Amino acid sequence: MGAKATLARVLRARFTPLIVLAALMVLVPVLAPSSFHLRVAALVWIFALAALGLTILMGYAGQVSLGHAGFVGIGAYAVAIGPARLGLDPLLCLGLGAVLAGAIAYGVGRPILKLKGYYLAIATLGFGVIVALVLHSEAEITGGPDGMAVARLSLFGWRVSGALNWYWVTSGALLIGALLALNIAASPTGRALRALHDSEVAAAGTGIDVGAKKLAAFVVAAVYGAVAGGLLAAMNGLITPEAASFSHSIELVAMVIIGGLGSVFGTVVGAAFLVVLPQMLTALQEYEQAVLGLLIMVFMIFLPQGIVPSIRAYILERLP
Amino acid sequence: MSLLEVRDMGISFGGLKAVDGVSFTVEAGQVFSIIGPNGAGKTTLFNLVTGIYRPSRGKVTLAGADMTGLAPHLLVRRGMARTFQNLQVFFRMTAVENVMVGCHLAERTSFLADLLGLPAVARQNKVTREHALALLGRVGLAHLADASAGALPYGALKRLEIARALAANPKVLLLDEPAAGCNAVETEAIDHLIADIARGGVGVVLIEHDMKLVMKISDRVLVLAQGRPLAEGAPRAVRENPQVIAAYLGDHGAREADRAHG
Amino acid sequence: MLTVEAITSAYGRINVLHEVWLEVKAGEIVALVGSNGAGKTTLLRTLSGVQPARSGRILFKGEAIERLEPHQRVVRGISQSPEGRQVFGPLSVEDNLRLGAYRRQDAGMRGRLDHVFALFPVLAEKRRIAAMSLSGGQQQMLAIGRALMAAPKLLLLDEPSLGLAPLLVDQILAAVRALRAEGITVLLVEQNASAALAIADRGYVLETGRVVMEGSGAALLDDPKVRTAYLGL
Amino acid sequence: ADPIRIGSVVSATGPSAFLGDPEAKTLKLYVEELNKKGGLLGRPVELVLYDDGGDANKARTFATRLVEDDKVVAMVGGTSTGATMAMIPVFEEAGIPFVSLAGGIEIIEPVRPFVFKTPHTDKTACQKIFEDMKARGITKIGMISGTDGFGKSMRNQCLKVVGGYNITVLADETYGATDSDMTPQLNKIKNTAGVEAVLNPGFGQGPAIVTRNYAQLGLKLPLYQSHGVASKSFIELAGPAAEGVRLPAPAILVGDKLATEDPQKAVVAGYKASYEKATGQSVSTFGGYGFDGIQLVTQAIDKAKSAEPKKIRDALEATRSYVGVTGVYSFSPTDHLGLGTDSFRMLEIRGGDWTLDAPTR
Amino acid sequence: MSEFLQLVFSGLTVGAIYALIALGFTLIYNASDVINFAQGDFVMIGGMATVFLMSAGLALPVAAFIAVVASVGVGLLLHRFAIEPARGASPVTLIMITIGASIFIKGVAQIVFDKQFHSLPAFSGDTPIPVGGATLLPQSLWVLGTTLGLVVALYLFLEHTLSGKALLATAANRLAARLVGINVTLILAMAFGLSAAIGALAGVVATPITLTRYDIGTLFALKGFAAAMLGGMGNPVGAVVGGLLIGLLETFGAGYVSSTYKDAVAFLMILFVLFFLPRGLFGGRSVERV
Ligand SMILES: Nc1ncnc2c1ncn2[C@@H]1O[C@H](COP(=O)(O)OP(=O)(O)OP(=O)(O)O)[C@@H](O)[C@H]1O
Ligand SMILES: Nc1ncnc2c1ncn2[C@@H]1O[C@H](COP(=O)(O)OP(=O)(O)OP(=O)(O)O)[C@@H](O)[C@H]1O
Ligand SMILES: [Mg+2]
Ligand SMILES: [Mg+2]
């Protein structure tokens, strides 16, 4: 009885996801030390970070974006182009990319966030397509479809290289990202976002500036995407326009939904699902895609609220 | 200068003059009721006054300041809160969270502070929650504070909206059929609640079809029919107006209205 | 006509109806009263089938229907005007009404449509307008009219007078009485309990998911407990 | 005995599946055949094959996996230049020889110790085409290029070398890799005065649609395609419109038409027969790149008498006059491609089939 | 002038293909508020199955008919085994299921069919029809005719049949639909079946022009979705107008602006239109009631 109540409290506690995540981060290098495993894990963290932006935008505020990869691309190419063409420091470019993405989100968001539902989806999709097209076409600057090399990142004098170091850097970035996302959730801003998700009229009726809040969520989401993109580019040492593609945007949305819309830990699980699963399915050879599609369907049918919220609800329901 | 002045409001929808030249004033501490047949334009009038529709003509002033055409969220900041006839509840949140959202304007944290999770945010959350709980108590929903709003019965949702609107600390409160879906006993509780709110100096504008409630607590009553004012005056005068009886009250209404002063 | 035996119904793991027993005889008007959250709506939803019954039986004209899909119950003659109106917003008023007769595309439909328009002339006026732009009360009329279009044998009305002008409340209640005269059986949930009990043959009082009282309409109206708890007298 | 593991990452699905699929099939087929013959150095050979779906980031991950987890001794793969470039650092760092199947010249320029490649560069293709144009007295052309990696890179190379042939490009249009109608662009070229021929760098279905639209618009100028369409399906897709199209391609497409003394004849015939038998599909140059890649690596292992990556690399670099289906390769420390322009043949489509235009050397 | 006309012909042809795909979205959206991301894959099934049946020796009409039936079968299976079991789930969840289905269908198609591009012979030859200095392929007329026929049929179905109304009612208010006796499951199954049929038909008539491959559905879905949104989701006439408009925008963009950025031109126009008509061209200007 006491144990059950504690479990319920733990499941509901705000920082539980963060602690679990941190524990996982420490465990991975112990259990799976090969640099391949570390790379896969680092990719999970990076994609989770990008998807966390969507968690805030879609999960909290209910605003769909099918162009999120566009911001990932902007961040990634900022880190690629800045050092290569302008001689800037890569770390500085990571920050500049975030600022640039935020500024673009601000400019683009103002007109398009007036749109609702699928209309917003197509508008963001259009934005993403245009970004991908520019990255693809302006070969003089971006290297075109085959991409461009990215300079090594150094953090205050420390040149990040090697799978383990990248693993820790991405872990740190995700932890910070997750912390901020959890902070927002439990704050007046988070309540406002969830409120406008349910009813914009009522939200405005309580004095919430719905337009401004949506825009803020959009900008924050863009920054998350851009930082993740920058890390991806720097870690790979090469970036292609694929990073900004439509299919990649869909993949990010899928991570958020499969893990559980609005759940921070769910987003990480969703990212793990879509990054790790294909690695596990390679043995199936040509059946890989079919099985992946099947698994997505099965998970969504049986865990309709996403993996983490569905499982948590299941456990909580079985408690007093 | 009255607290709320609405002058010569009008709007049409594709040829239908839904509201057509309606004026009224509400004083602080007063309960001002708007009644009229279904489709008379009462809710539309609310939507015009609270900035949800842009009026094609007319003017709204609150405490002397022009509010016409201001966006809803700005109107709230100036002291105008409302409830909705078609429930607009945050269904994915708990009851208390709904009211906490209503406290939005009183909250003193910045976006950055929220993002960084500064201690001030936690303190603010605590203050807000306590305030919200108190408001829930005031509308008689304290026991349902942590229930999901989606699971509340209809009557409770109506009161939840009132609590949320009160949270904005309004000067003027517009209530669109707050007693719909409540039985006579529950209506009486709402009746006390409204009187209590008005006593606190808030100007209350009330749309309601429950004549017992309207006639009992209103200071003045405006009757609309087909978008136009039909009669205005003290409850007693209005309910005896033969035009109002014919167009709106009927036997049942007249009986109910009489019971108010039974 | 309708016998409800020990119906239990729940949202998630929380039981909202606890073994409710109830009977509606052919040609009767039965009123169901109770405070907010008593489970009146849940009971009607369980009868029309949009809410599953956890246990118990529902007999309609002797047939067990608790396992049937809602549309199968409509075919058998059960029709509901739901709480909160639930009109088909983007569809026109007339389409809403025609869909009410989805399972009764017979010769009588025209007549029923005229009947509804006669009952609520404003609907005729607005027949081409999208239902979502109707006023609240007009939508309520539409919801009732839609339920009537099914030419039901048993009509379930969930707070039909909600949001209606007093003049119309009279008309609605008169209409319900007229329906009985036509042989339609009515189960009526009303917050306006005194008016409802006044026209009802019999009534039930529901309290936190249990039937706590039943009797003739007149008897309940006179019951001191009912008078203080629900009629505010 | 322990198997010798050879790794591969190709784009068997995604936009480059057109290339990656035959590559994957060829690699599987030949490793199988090798094992039937007893493997290498008395050990079985295991092919560890991954599909990157055309995503460079995935390719990079699989490369790490091949090195770290699968412990391969050599790598044959990399369908696109982007994917190849993403994987190069992994193999360079691990010191494992990597034979790429992608076209980009940057793969082998500058030369990296462990990286080789089998396909011609697009530059060679451009040169071959322009030589042909020059020989036919064409001096003004229009270009229409795909915006995929292949089309874009070849367009750039062509623009770089075109000046050397006294040919000017009067119109320079592009189309998206997945477009289904190119008439607007072709119409512009049609309306550009003075154009004497049109060149279409691109691969996949795009060139087929270009060819059809070309016929629809009634354009009668010579149309040049690239080695990116060098598979039978191009002729099928473009239909009668393909008649008269010219392109540079390796010998593989015209195996039966090669002169008997042609050194490639036997190799090409052998590959064609076994591939078509095993898959039921026509051979393409892309599968040929895979064939040459796996042959080069296995021969190097054989020669080195060791499955030691460094030794394989050295043996690879020492390869001289390997006769493959794409051409005759001779690697050197300064040349990790080892093919010349002469390994391209100029073909013309006539009667729904490839024909050798110029006599082979 | 002839150049202009040529661009118009190209634009209408491409646009009609987008319109056909957009039409497929309409039914499922109208019945359930869900955008079916597997819609493009129905188009692929239509084209690929016809190709393979023809290469097995069947005549085009027979092959096309079987392909459409097969696609309907896939649509019904998708509904029965993926949508129906998740009934009551939110649109987001259902959309995710259709995304999964799309990946699954592609995965199966690359095994059942292959990974190559394929084409179908044009129904009535490849001889271009010269009109005013420009040329038009006979197949374009097939595509335009099919689009016209389907939009009329769909419009009549939704506006003038009770089943059509029931479909709209199901999306408008699921609870009320059940209460008036609509068999919601059946309606949804019908929507999936018909959408699959429309998609497959689109695939059959478009393949001689666009060519097809196991994964071409993603692109088709993207363009069709954009067309449907530009026109106003759920409105068949809007879908067709949206499709034709995007087709024209793309070709005129390619012809007069930049062939590289023609997709950008199209999307910028969509953004521009939505800025003034936030529910698309035919999405209605209805004000939200509160
Ligand atoms: N957006 C709209 N489009 C078209 N007509 C509208 C719109 N909004 C309201 N109307 C019409 O305007 C009239 C007034 O509606 P309103 O909702 O204001 O009535 P009401 O007085 O609140 O009625 P009730 O008491 O039934 O709630 C109605 O006839 C309604 O149909
Ligand atoms: N969707 C739901 N999920 C969980 N609980 C619910 C849900 N809907 C209703 N309930 C609960 O079921 C109980 C009965 O609700 P119901 O709506 O049947 O009451 P009611 O008698 O119709 O009340 P009202 O007079 O307010 O309409 C209430 O306690 C309510 O909180
Ligand atoms: Mg109203
Ligand atoms: Mg109820």
UniProtKB/TrEMBL annotation, chain A:
Pfam families xrefs: BPD_transp_2
Compartmental location: Cell membrane
Main location: membrane
Transmembrane regions listed in the UniProt entry: 12-32, 38-57, 88-106, 118-136, 166-186, 215-240, 252-278, 290-315
Membrane topology label: Multi-pass membrane protein
Keyword Amino-acid biosynthesis listed: no
Highest rank taxon of the organism: Bacteria
Glycosyltransferase listed as a keyword: no
Key words, A-Z: Cell membrane, Membrane, Transmembrane, Transmembrane helix
Name this polypeptide is given: Branched-chain amino acid ABC transporter permease
Source organism: Xanthobacter oligotrophicus
Organism phylogeny: Bacteria, Pseudomonadati, Pseudomonadota, Alphaproteobacteria, Hyphomicrobiales
TrEMBL record, chain B:
GO molecular function term, any single one: ATP binding
Endpoints of the signal sequence: none
Record keywords, A-Z: ATP-binding, Nucleotide-binding, Transport
Name of one Pfam family that matches: BCA_ABC_TP_C
Domain ABC transporter: 4-251
SMART domains per record: AAA
Name the record gives this protein: ABC transporter ATP-binding protein
Organism: Xanthobacter oligotrophicus
Automatic annotation (TrEMBL), chain C:
Stretches of the chain forming a coiled coil according to its record: none
Position of the signal peptide: none
CDD domains: ABC_TM1139_LivF_branched
Domain of life: Bacteria
ABC transporter domain ranges (all copies): 2-233
Gene Ontology molecular functions: ATP binding
InterPro entries: AAA+_ATPase, ABC_transporter-like_ATP-bd, ABC_transporter-like_CS, BCAA_Transport_ATP-bd_LivF, P-loop_NTPase
Keyword set, alphabetical order: Amino-acid transport, ATP-binding, Nucleotide-binding, Transport
Pfam families (alphabetical): ABC_tran (PF00005)
Gene3D superfamilies named among the record's database cross-references: P-loop containing nucleotide triphosphate hydrolases
PANTHER family: HIGH-AFFINITY BRANCHED-CHAIN AMINO ACID TRANSPORT ATP-BINDING PROTEIN LIVF
Family, as annotated: Belongs to the ABC transporter superfamily.
The name this protein goes by in its record: ABC transporter ATP-binding protein
Source taxonomy: Bacteria, Pseudomonadati, Pseudomonadota, Alphaproteobacteria, Hyphomicrobiales
UniProtKB/TrEMBL annotation, chain E:
Main location: membrane
Domain of life: Bacteria
Protein name: Branched-chain amino acid ABC transporter permease
Taxonomic lineage of the native organism: Bacteria, Pseudomonadati, Pseudomonadota, Alphaproteobacteria, Hyphomicrobiales
Transmembrane domains' residue ranges: 7-29, 49-78, 90-113, 140-158, 179-205, 237-258, 264-282
Subcellular location: Cell membrane
Listed InterPro entries: ABC_transp_permease, BCAA_transport_permease
PANTHER family: ABC TRANSPORTER PERMEASE PROTEIN, BRANCHED-CHAIN AMINO ACID TRANSPORT SYSTEM PERMEASE PROTEIN LIVH
Keywords: Amino-acid transport, Cell membrane, Membrane, Transmembrane, Transmembrane helix, Transport
Organism annotation: Xanthobacter oligotrophicus
Family to which this protein belongs: Belongs to the binding-protein-dependent transport system permease family. LivHM subfamily.
